[in-house]
Amino acid sequence: REPPRHRPRETLMTQIVQPDSLLTLHYRISLDNGQALISTFESQPATMQLGHGDIAPTLERCLTGITVGERHTFLLEPENAFGVHREDLVEKVRLEDFPDGTEVEPMVIMEFTAPDGTRYPGLIREVLDTHAIIDFNHPLAGKSIRFEVEVIGVN
Asked: 54 pLDDT exceeds 90?
């Protein structure tokens, strides 16, 4: 009787997403009613570095711990997604304070410069006789979202 033959052990390293991983993945962000806002499932996968501001920190936390090949869907309430809608970020700006020649129209996003030089995008919600109502909230603030991911690779 022959002794059993031993094959070299194959080492399978399971790749798990870490807080500083470089990822290749497909993802979809949609409203809780299913309306897709952005999706890579129908095109090329995305590559992003976690921990460097490529995506919102709350979405990064969803990705941490996922194994390559897994597909997950996360339902996020506003406070865990892009924040609640804050009325203190909606401001009245006098039309005379806009640069000369600027067309101030509703539902247009413009860049505004704060006194310290920081720039912020703001959505012109409404134009009145003497003022415009500008919303500096993230466009998805106050909305529940569905975040669907499939991790393809981790480096």
From this structure: no
- Which pLDDT value is given to residue 2? 60
Residues forming beta bridges with residue 75, ordered by sequence position = 146
pTM value? Answer: 0.73
Q: Are strands 46-49 and 22-31 parallel, antiparallel or unpaired?
A: antiparallel
In three-state form (DSSP H/G/I as H, E/B as E, the rest C), the secondary structure along the chain is CCCCCCCCCCCCCCCECCCCCEEEEEEEEEECCCCEEEECCCCCCEEEECCCCCCCHHHHHHHCCCECCCEEEEEECHHHCCCCCCHHHEEEEEHHHCCCCCCCCCCCEEEEECCCCCEEEEEEEEECCCEEEEECCCCCCCCCEEEEEEEEEEC
